[in-house]
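note to self — DONT lose this again. spent like an hour looking for the file last time. sequence + predicted structure for the chain T wanted, 593 res
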Amino acid sequence: QVAVAGAGRAGPAAVVAGRADLESLLQADGGEQLTCGNPTWFYPVDKCEASDNGGGWGKRRRLTGPTPPPAACKDANAHAWCDTSKDPAERARLLVAELNWTELAAQVSCDIFAGVPAIPRLGVNAYNFIRENDHGLLWHNVCPAATVYPHVISMAAAFNRSLWRTVGEQSAVETRYNYDTGKQNSLFTQINFNIFVDPRWGRGQEVPGEDPVLNSEYARAWVRGVQAERGPSGVPLAGASCKHFAAYSLEGAGGWPDPAADSNRHNFDAKVTAQDLADTHFPMFRACAEEGAVGMMTSYNAVNGVPMAANGNLTDGVARKKWNFTGAAVTDCGAVEDIWRRHKYVETAEDASRAALRGGTDIECGGTIKTNAKADMEPLLRKAVERSFTARFRLGEFDAREEESEVKMYDAAAHAGVAYEAAVQGSVLLKNQGGFLPLSSKTRVAVLGPMKDATWQALGNYAALKNSADWSDSPNVVSPVQGLQACGLGDGLKVVDGGPYVCSMGDEEVAGFLTHSQKPDVDAVVVVAGLNCADEQSQDPDRVPYTSGKCQAGCLETEGCDRPGLKLPPGQAQLLERVQAWDLPVVLVVIAG
């Protein structure tokens, strides 16, 4: 989320004089206020390069080549479960009846990258239940690159249900396009709706906020958008799976609530009263169930002593029986292993596998169940696989496409326009002393700070354009400096190098900003501060927090890392103190969750 504060000079006496200066900046020489609103430069849409020459995105992002996945029921008489007059649950039961218990076990364990395996003898394709769609489809190296919308915490600030539904539907259109062209093997997508209980939580950027009503309304709109019908048969564009059920709002690597290195989301036991569960942690998941979401992901943590991956009282007893949730229950990655290895809830991996299945798990992200399944688990495995295949039948995987013609490309420019509109509606102006903002086109501005050149760092986590091979390779992302230049400040913009990095271990001196004499000859200063949204060197640092210097330094907020407090890193705070000493109007832009 981007928060902007326009501030005058420090001190009560200076504030009055500062306001007059701010007004003069707006009016001097007939200067017009900056007007920026063309999404073609905020989020330009490059044409995909068909050539494989060279390297880079032209080689990886291919428009041609992939083909639609084969449909097992292109011949409606191929199998009994191809009868479209039967409902998805009955078709799933008929298909699963043809599987032996080892095949069932394989269909329960989903590899995070490859998915569950294909069943060639039945014409069943491999399928991945771990596809992310928090603010746009997380799918690297495809052409066109998936649209990256503002992060959820920002779009929620728009308080606009139609916006949330539109973004959900557009992201589903892109999901369906990539599926129909054979670029990905799934239509089952995940989104985070947990409550932002503590502002230090590293994944707060992924959720609408701390209000159960807001989160629930967002969830309803999102599920309706993602699962909008795509044709006469009523098949959804894609599937929405809501995570993480339930009471999850802790990573653990930031040093709270327990500074012990082994206290994290993988072994944390959330002690929550029945009323707090009902009032705070359940409403958005109930909303998902009532809207017919095809999936629900359980969380790593335990709730009142029972790991969620094995918590039948909540998954079966509440979600399925009370809310009529009919989708597939999916675990987070490695959560079944956590049942015995980290929660110590049972003693062995086999016991953990059995506990997960009894607790209502249909799909585990990982391989514990597949590896440790036994023949006596067959009834539990069969029930789980029936539910996961019901979701796949609901999404139309096995039937021939209703349109036999070539898959049509979606309107990427229109999607980019909505992404821009979402950014505008979700931006938060915290303070505008003296009406200084918006800037005048005549204003001479110095821009500095560790995030002034941010590209992928400004996208937030779970963003598609952070290429896994080279994190600096993020096409079409406009940095704050580039945005200011495009707004018309090119001639009057002074980009100041130097200063602290985003990650500052301590109160070190800030190079280039030590004396008042180094004050730039400008009318105002824009400082772009913030936190990293990911550590490209250490994924999920909650397991091994010492591997992430950025997390230890308090300059990272992401999956696996909570921030230690609400203040900016020491180096950035020091930079702001030096800038304020220049006695110039300051615009502080904070890019953080």
